[in-house]
Structure formats: C-alpha cells, structure tokens
Amino acid sequence: MQPKVDLSAGLCENCHGDTSHGAVIKEWDEYSSPGFEMGAMLSHSEPTDVAEPFVPDSGKSCVSCKSTDGAVPNLAAPEIYDLNEDALPEPAAVKEWRITCTACHNPHTTALRVEDGIQLCANCHNGREAKAEGAPTEYFYPNWEMYSSSDFATGVHPVELTCTDCHMAQSPVDSSANGPASPDHTFNFDPVLLSDPETENECYACHEKNLASLVAERQENISGELQALGQLEVNAGEALETANGTEAYPKLEKAYNNALFHMAYVENDGSLGIHNMDKATIHLETARGLLEYVTEAAGATGEKPTEGPEGPASEEVPDFGAAIAFAGLLGALFLRKMKTRPGK
Q1: Is the pLDDT of residue 302 over 80?
Q2: Which of 67, 238, 249, 279 sits at a 20 to 30 Å CA gap from 297?
Q3: Are 128 and 257 in contact (CB under 8 A)?
C-alpha cells in the first residue's frame, strides 16, 4: 500500500512552524494576506485553478509550471525547455495547484530539487523559445532569456548575480529570532532591502543607498517608452485597417504582429528592463520601428509600400551597433524620430 502523497505547504508547516520556518511560510503565503490583489500581484502561493481557471482545461504542459504536482516530475528532467511531458499528470489529477515548498525542495533532505538554483528557476521562468513570426503568440515569461544574456550573467557586472541574489534578499538579523535571518520567500525584488547595510546582502558595498533610485530611473525609462508605444500601437492598428483588402495588407499585418511581440516580450518579462536593459531597449526600438513603418506605409494612399522590416527574432536580438544598422533600413524620417524620442 502506497503512502498518501501530500504536496501542500501546510504539511511542511506542521513540523517547520517555529519562529524561523514559520516566517518563511508566512512570507510565501502572500495569497492569504489581507492586502493581496489577485489581479495585480503574482505569488507562488496563488492557486492556479482560481487565478487562471482556464488552465485546468488546458493540456499537460501547463501543469508543469502551474502546479506542484507538475513541477516535481518536470524538475526530474531539469533541462530548460524540457517539460518532461511523459511524466506529467493530467490537469484533472492535480491536487496542489500552488507552487509550494516541495516544488523546489526535496521534503526529505530540504535540498533543492535542482542543484543549480538558476536552472531551477529558469525551468519555469522562461519564454519557451518564443519568436516573432508574424502572428500572435502565446503568453510567455522570458525571464531566463533576458537574464542569461545580461551583464549579470556574462561577467560584465563586477559580481555575477543569480535569481536568488535579487529575489530572495536577506532581512536584517533579528537577535530574538530562532536562528539566522532567512532569505525572503516572497521572491519580491526589493532594492531598498538589498542595499541595506544592516543585512548580509552585498549590494551596499558598491551601490550604497542609491540602488533603489537607480532601479526606479531605469524602469521609468522603459515604462515611459511602453506607454508611448501604446499610442503608436493604436495609430498603427487604425492605419492597418485602411490597408485591409489590399496586396500590402499581409506584409503590414505581419509587421504589426511582430511589433506587438517585441512589446510583449518586455512587458511579460516583468522587470521593466532590470533583467537586461540593453535587450529590453532593442526590443522596444524594434517595436517602434515596425509600428512606424505600418503607420507610414499604410498611409501612403495609392503608393506601393516599401519593403518592411522584419525585426529580430527573440533569441537573435542584435547588439546596439546592429540595432542602429537595422534602424537605417527605416529611412531618414524614422532615424530623426528615434533621436528625439522620450527618455533618450
């Protein structure tokens, strides 16, 4: 007779509910906190069958990252992009739709299920190699694709940073607590805490107390550009409709859809450029060029639209030199607008 398998956090709390472990479980369980807003916040403690009720009606691949039942067999084959679908349960068989302690930790040893912590996170936090292909794409989270080519991972940043360095900041040591300060299990990014000299986080050594302002400034630039692109998207959509039924329409529609892809790539990463400022900027520059091309080409009544830019695929985003060369294809008018865009 097989023992009953319980993947809930409550089972862990039965034994690990003292001062230190109890705090970890409360941090993780943001969903149960009074201030949690399901429409605006994300948490591993959020039950997928409640937050995304369409998922239980989807295929097995969704349960790999949307439930602990799926995460456990998925991580048994830890290669990124490998969902280990043969071992995944059907959605109807899932009992634990949250990402609980046992999704990441082996309950018998407390060790991580995947020794490489970056790979552990990237197993779910990735864009499934989505590319701009001229058609609407599925929802994706390209955190891994952004981070893996960033300064933090390639040695440009003075200190290599992993996911947990930023998303599991150490709190100040509480002398009354039972044991050392534990890493934050909300997984929220808190630049103020990261640069607090009273903690064991190392950001203070270089950034002192300016990390939060530096992050805010960079995020404001990306956020501002996304807002500006929102209006360009409207303009391009209206212009596209005027070309509906013409020979030019398929090419313009492809360019428009690719622009939306590049915008979504940055939006769905969720960091507003912090994971990879260079890559986020190039994706938005590409989106701007495509939207302006659609607007101008569709508005050229009676004229044959010029050859439209395709834009780079998500995993072929060029460096800044290549981005400038790409922008040159859009013509002098586009280059002049690029030089005067907000935040540059």
Answers
A1: no
A2: 279
A3: no
